[in-house]
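This section describes the prediction task in plain terms. A model, or a person checking by hand, is given the sequence of a single protein chain and must write out its three-dimensional structure as a string of tokens. No templates, partner chains or ligands are provided. The sample shown here is typical of the held-out split.
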Amino acid sequence: MTSPAIPPRLPLGVLPTPLVPAPRLRAALGCGPLWIKRDDLAGFGVAGNKTRPLEHLLGDALARGADVLVTGGGPDSNFVAAAALAARVAGIDCELVVWGAGTLDPTPNLALAAAAGATVVPLDDVGVDGRERVDVVVAERATALRAAGRHPVAVPRGGSTPVGAAGFAVAAAELLDQGPAPDTVVLPLGSGGSTAGLLAGLAAAGAGTRVLAVSVSRPPAEITEKVLDLARACADLLGTPAPRADRLEVVDHRGPGFGVAAPGDRAAAATALRTEGLLLDDTYGAKAFAIALDRLSGGDLPGPVVLWHTGGVASALAHLGPRPSDHPALTGAP
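The expected answer:
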């Protein structure tokens, strides 16, 4: 095992997050050993797993003398709110490039970002299919701030850089310290930083754990290469062995669209809620758990399996309802 060279860190979270058994969910599925990694309890605002990359992104920014963080995402982005709070803790300004910010009612995450003092730069002409433009405008905004004499640091959506991914490389070591290496870890896959960092961290530890990543945003062929490239770059930054491609399986579960949960996703979220009290968001958690629960109930994941609960509590509450059809108690139905 190679000891990694960890980038500078600004402590934000209450780590390690718990690794807990899921006996009621396991009984409902009839599956093998099952554990939940509770990054929803990371302890920094409602940032969930976004706490991990931000600790290193802000630590690196401060080490570079930055005075403003520029990043972005969608109007319901967990990362957007978390970045605004992290910048406030770091004592620097924050600008957020947000698509759709001026065309929708403020989401809890966007309201939280504004409450933290972030400046929102709306991109109202960019739809879901064009959200990649956010990163372009983030870079342009950083260039303009630099020309004005500021010291910006530009971070792409989700914090998916080698430095940001290092947060999940550390999380891999944290997981392995909490018990025997699992056979499989299941987690949602968006911009790729969490999955890439996890792969890098597992490789650094010499663990044989496989990663089942549920893609909620991009076609598997596209995002798989991005994740592997980012994992290799993260390992290079840390000075640890490059991860193996055969340790990663990417499953396409974009469903009806980014941030839109299908009925099966909501059913999986309801099962997680009613068995283990887990609150899953539509964008990431519900979709990842839907694939995991299907695989587990079908015997395709013999275990031990770790389901990584990435958080998204603010978004989950916003999408919870009430939907009378989903909650018969609200309608007086028997």
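For orientation: The chain is about 40% helix and 15% strand.
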